[in-house]
Amino acid sequence: MPRAAAPTLASPSPSSSSRPSPSSSSSSSRIPRAADSDRRRTSASVVLRSVLEHGPVARSTIARLTGLSPASVTDYCARFAELGLIREESAPRRSNGVGRPHVPVDLDASRFVVAGVHVAVPYTTVALLDLRGRVLARRELKHERTDPGWVLARAAEALRALLDGVPDCRPLGVGVAVGGWVDRESGTVVEHPMLGWRDVAVRDVLGARTGLPVHVDGHARALVNAERLFGPARGGGSVLHLFVGNVVDAAFATNDEVHHGPRSQAGAIAHLPVPGGTEVCDCGRVGCLQAELSERTLCRRAREAGVVEGTNPMHVVAAAAGGDPDAVALLVRRAGAVGRAARLLLDVLNPETVVVTEIGIIHREDCLAALREGVGTERAAFVVPTSFPDSVLAVAGGSVALDVLYRDPLAASPQAI
To answer: Rounded CA gap, 238 and 31, in Å?
Structure first.
């Protein structure tokens, strides 16, 4: 699968999660200012993210946004151009028609892709994303079985087919997003009860099958990274992401850092108690958050109400769109419960923004209204649906790899170290 001479994303070092991130000292800029200009990785990161957000952009503007010297910005831009990550615009521009013309730089989204893998309970999504996080191609692979060797082998084969379809693009690496307990540092799915996975060395398995660097993280954390890189939350001080699918979990980012906790256990909220809950959880208790809100529970209730058959939650959404009052009631009630869960997390973490990924909230305004009512009117304006309604799972996988790129862009090539 790997193409000759292609730069790749280096595997993260054990200290990568503790790297300091820049803090903004200018309210007019959404790009963090560099806290220490001699920290090369941090400086390179803020320069490339400035190009991501503002490109085409003059080097002088990047220097103003980041607080780096013009000479440093010019040096980083030259390195990025050599790597093929950015390009100069063909025609120079003048500021307000006067002064010396400048040549803006922009991301070169035509040369490289990252591969993304998202492993859900019923199926795996494989995708290719460009450097702006846009999905170029994707496939869904329904699980006929869920043993990890079989699932990951199929994912590798599907990625190879997608890459064969874009022969002019070279892959930088593979990002893998999975629910459950995922240890990012070791690239291991420690535990995913619904899949029956325990201590699965995803990084090693997929790396051996693809020949590419592989980076693995939990899907809620992956989607926080997607929001801060490509969504309206980028540059924000703190973001909470609540993912409600078959798996229910959360992730929290502040000052541009996602909190992982020891061995990446942060965000495990599946067993938070829901007052008045009636669902029996696999843990033996009644009223755990995941048991109450999972898509499995939604579909079972829809079957009991005679709304749909099967286990596809999109069929419930389709029934609601067709005017089925029971389907509408199920989705709205679930969205309200999600809002009440979000309110609990808001009280504890007090983020500036809450992003929710949940199927009813993505597709229906009444569900979004119920979510915000559950949160409470005083905080409702800070709660928004995912920025990627049509591609959330594809974006989750790819964003794991893109986060690595934008945190340490010079590591995309060993020649740049």
So the answer is: 14
In angstroms, rounded to a whole number, what is the distance separating the alpha carbons of residues 256 and 234? 9
CA distance 49 to 107: 10
Beta carbons within 8 Å of 203's beta carbon, 6+ residues apart? 11, 176, 186, 187, 188, 214, 215, 216
For residue 18, pLDDT beyond 60: no
Length of the chain: 417
Distance from C-alpha of 86 to C-alpha of 56, rounded to nearest angstrom:
10
Q: Write out pLDDT tens, residues 222-259.
A: 999 999 999 877 766 899 999 999 999 999 999 878 98
Which residues face 175 on adjacent strands? Answer: 116, 215
Those residues with Cβ within 8 angstroms of residue 410's Cβ, 6 or more apart along the chain or in another chain: 40, 41, 44, 79, 83, 416, 417
Q: What percent of the chain has pLDDT over 90?
A: 76
Residues 6+ apart with CB under 8 A from 400: 116, 175, 176, 177, 215, 216, 217, 222, 225
State how far the Cα of 12 lies from the Cα of 187, in Å rounded to an integer. Answer: 10
